[in-house]
Amino acid sequence: MDRMLAVVGPVMLVLLLGAAAAQTPEDNDRTCSGEDDTAAIAACTAIIQSDQPQAEDIANALNRRGHAYFNLGQSERAIADFDQAIKRDPGNVQAFYNRAIANFGNHHADRAIADFDQALKLDPTNTYALTNRGAVFADAGQYGRALRDFDQAISLDATNANAFYDRALVKRKTGDAAGADADLARARAIDPALGR
Q1: Where are the beta strands (DSSP E) in 24-157?
Q2: For residues 179 and 171, is the Cβ–Cβ distance under 8 A?
Q3: Phi-psi region of 119 (alpha: psi -120 to 50; beta: other; left: phi over 0)
Q4: Does residue 115 contact residue 102 with C-beta atoms inside 8 Å?
């Protein structure tokens, strides 16, 4: 039986390597952007290591791979990929945004705010960055700054349930119970599952 395993092992390895090599650039693009984080890491790595990738393609693959690492709980690897994506493409708003989220998750609020600031400098209408930067400010007890970010996010997108919800929490902390109730009602009208 041991002899059989010795033969099957290399055959399986060859088959697996052959399957990986059979991926076309289009397959890698699709898988790199897909929802299976483990498969995305492999496909994004293939794009990064390919012979003739464009700088923007590498930056996007690094950003997506970083996102997959973050989803799998590997935040340091994620941040390293976001760093490289930003180095290759300093205008990559999504890489700044993703690195901000990872930094906040690692309890580096100052780094998160700096990254959200840069994302907003590149795209002032990015309501996700505004809402999440507001959440970082709120977490730090900087309620005025948080409220300004939530107000701006809501002015740009009146269907931003998270901004209404987060603003309700801050209003409650600052003693504006009526404003908090109104924002919470609006958030739940947009997304009934929010905060439950």
Answers
A1: none
A2: yes
A3: alpha
A4: no
20 phi/psi in degrees, rounded to 5: -65, -40
Rg (CA), the chain: 22
- Alpha-carbon distance 63 to 85, whole Å? 6
Instruction: List the one residue out of 143, 141, 135 whose CA is nearest residue 116.
Output: 135
What percentage of the chain carries pLDDT values higher than 90? 77
Q: Which tens digit of pLDDT belongs to each residue from 113-172? A: 999 999 999 999 999 999 999 999 999 999 999 999 999 999 999 999 999 999 999 999
What element of type H or E holds 22? none
| Pairwise CA distance, residues 27 & 138, whole Å | 42
Count the Cβ atoms, other than its own, within 10 Å of residue 105: 14
Query: Global pTM?
Result: 0.82
The answer to whether 149 and 133 have CB atoms below 8 angstroms apart is yes
Q: Which of 109, 44, 111 is nearest to 71 (CA)?
A: 44
Q: Which two tokens stand for residue 1?
A: 């039986």
The span from the CA of 5 to the CA of 11, in Å, is 10
